[in-house]
Amino acid sequence: MPEPYGNEEKGLYIFRKPRVSDGPDIHSLIERSRPLDLNSLYSYLLLADHFRDTCIVAERDGKIAGFISAYVHPSKNNTLFVWQVAVGEQERGNGVAGRMLDNLFDRPGLASVSFLETTVNPSNDGSRRLFESFAKRFQAPLVTSVLYPEELFGQGGHEAEILFRIGPFDA
Ligand SMILES: CC(C)(COP(=O)(O)OP(=O)(O)OC[C@H]1O[C@@H](n2cnc3c(N)ncnc32)[C@H](O)[C@@H]1OP(=O)(O)O)[C@@H](O)C(=O)NCCC(=O)NCCS
């Protein structure tokens, strides 16, 4: 298991697979993490249960400080699709999101994964920077394309979802 890390101000972070009992805290973290879409509590219970091998939480002082939901792409088994990334407001700017991604890709069970895919909303600088920085660390190409255009989301004012495909890299 990767080492916990931290600094004096923020204490130690532990990176681990989610547990079903984390579901309510993950749901609450996403609720506080605009502009992310809040899904049902049930969906976070399922992620923490059925998809625990491809999801990760960051824990600090027994509390959920960050969460990434991800799954192996159903038709590309060398590709991990990262769905939502959230870090608690007080914990941001500490490298937690980047470390969650790195820890996830360190898992022996994901050794055959050589691409990361995710979608980024055009106005979300933090999200874009997180994945650009990941691509740089892994020295992997990053290719972007429109996955789901704005029109698909109806009148709700939802931005387009831009696909970031990063890789190949050695997990
Ligand atoms: C986006 C988010 C996950 C970043 O978490 P974080 O732990 O603060 O990110 P990190 O500290 O690991 O930073 C990763 C990189 O992104 C950059 N970054 C992070 N937030 C940024 C922001 N708001 N604006 C510009 N750059 C940002 C960091 O400088 C760092 O770059 P570097 O590696 O070149 O130094 C967090 O702000 C969040 O939860 N936001 C709300 C939900 C959201 O928008 N999620 C993203 C959807 S995928």
Could you give a short description of this structure?
The chain is of the alpha+beta class.
User: What is the element string, with H for helices and E for strands?
Assistant: EEHHEEEHEHEE
List how many beta strands DSSP finds.
Answer: 8
CATH class: Alpha Beta
Superfamily (CATH H level) name: Gcn5-related N-acetyltransferase (GNAT)
Quaternary state of this entry equals: single chain
pLDDT < 50 stretches = none
The CATH architecture designation is 3-Layer(aba) Sandwich
Shape: globular
Helix % is 10-25%
Gap from first CA to last CA: 15 Å
CATH topology: Aminopeptidase
Q: Per DSSP, what share of the residues sits in E-state strands of 2 or more residues?
A: 25-35%
Rounded Rg: 15 Å
- Largest sheet, if any? 8 strands, mixed
